[in-house]
Amino acid sequence: MKTAIYVRVSTNEQAEEGYSIDEQIDKLKKFCEIKDWQVMDVYKDPGFTGSNIDRPGLKKLIRDVEKKKVDTVLVYKLDRLSRSQKDTLFLIEDVFGANHTNFVSLNENFDTSTPFGKAMIGILAVFAQLEREQIKERMQMGKLGRAKSGKAMSWHWPPFGYKHKGDSYEIVELEAQIVKQIFHDYLSGISITKLKDKMNDEGHIAKDIPWSYRTIRQTLDNPTYAGYTKYKDQIFPGNHEAIVSKEVYEEVQKQLVIRQKEAYQKNNISRPFQAKYLVSGLVRCGHCGAALGLHQYAKKKDGTRTKIYKCHSRTKKRHSTMAKADHCISRDYQKEELEAAVLNEIEKLRLNPSLMKNYSVAPKVDDTPLIKRIDELDRKLEKLVNLYLDETLPLDVLNERKEVIQKEKKAIEKKLDGVEKEKPELEKSEALGILKSLKGSILALDYEKQKVIVRQLIKQITLKDDEMVIQWRFTL
């Protein structure tokens, strides 16, 4: 049987317990002679602690086990492999067991090839779980204690407007002015969506990425800016300087609730009663992708005006974020003709719901992989913090790995923000319910009611030359 001998001793253990690397090797080789086992190699870790598995000799052993070079791993004593129950279980089950390699400990007469050894693995698993729970509890108590004492959550990326300074935060003046502006503008009545556009138009970048709805919302909701620290749902007075007053922060929280309630009352429909015209905000140019806005010519002799939908890339006063091309070749669309065409499509659908299967509908968007990955990254970060609290991971290594994890997490959250916007808002049955509720032709409704129905059913209208493509809000 091809056997790998693994030996380890720390400097303190050698002094206190009196057995050296050479003594361990001698006893283990004699044991192999009795068993008629062939010693393939001896893996040594002199002067290394058993509190973690970051040891050169052990790493080489793991590589050779994975290459199927050995049949059995032999140690003098179980704690030579590791002093951590969870690490011991990981090595025995996930490394040795997964590669069909037996594990034997001479001192405890522990052999995973025997029924007793297999039973011991179960006992180890119980103690490993207990160890994990104790670490988790200790970590949570440590986090809660930091929050109660007003200290910054040092394992988190500092909020925009702050940088870490010891156990607290220090204000970054340039960023802090932007944070103040966001709170001020929101209280002045500007919506989060418009705030996001305003920040990006003015060139204010948040942590090297453009502002999104999510990042503006998170900024307004973050109690750190009012001088608090937060752990889970508990908020405590912090030791850092506030960027906005508590009064401003509390008023913003009230407004967030009020405006969210108003949005729900409007059935989460984009601007159902604020849009002046039937398809305002819904029409996109099929040539350059810009939105189409309504323009009107000078009054005629009879007092009427000709109203058209024109691509923003073709207007004289182009808004920086709305124009998508310098020279767009799209044409203009008469307001009455375009609106009539849209209403006729809805009327066709009302009269013949089976046409739904032929339409361009909102795609079913699965955000599960993104959410799952964020959870995985959170667990990775928690493991790193555990190792740091156990004093087995240096702070500089923790910060380095934390930065990599948080960078990936920010990128995924940005993707998730886009996915949220692509999610269908209506099931097929809900769309059918809206059509049935008309109790007659949509053409017979007044203009305001027509606007509501259009926004309930239509997500986007793309116009390219004489072609109109409607993307509906429902999914099949």
UniProtKB/TrEMBL annotation:
Coiled-coil ranges from the UniProt annotation: 395-429
Catalytic residues, chain numbering: 10
MF term (GO), any: DNA binding
Pfam families per UniProt: Recombinase, Resolvase, Zn_ribbon_recom
Source taxonomy: Bacteria, Bacillati, Bacillota, Bacilli, Lactobacillales
SMART domains to which the protein is assigned, alphabetical: Resolvase (SM00857)
Tree of life domain: Bacteria
Isomerase is among the record's keywords: no
Stretches assigned to the Resolvase/invertase-type recombinase catalytic domain: 2-150
Recombinase domain boundaries: 159-262
CDD domains in UniProt: SR_ResInv
BP-aspect Gene Ontology terms: DNA integration
Gene3D superfamilies documented for this protein: Putative Large Serine Recombinase, Chain B, Domain 2, Resolvase, N-terminal catalytic domain
Name of the protein in question: Recombinase family protein
Keywords: Coiled coil, DNA integration, DNA recombination, DNA-binding, Plasmid
Organism per entry: Vagococcus lutrae
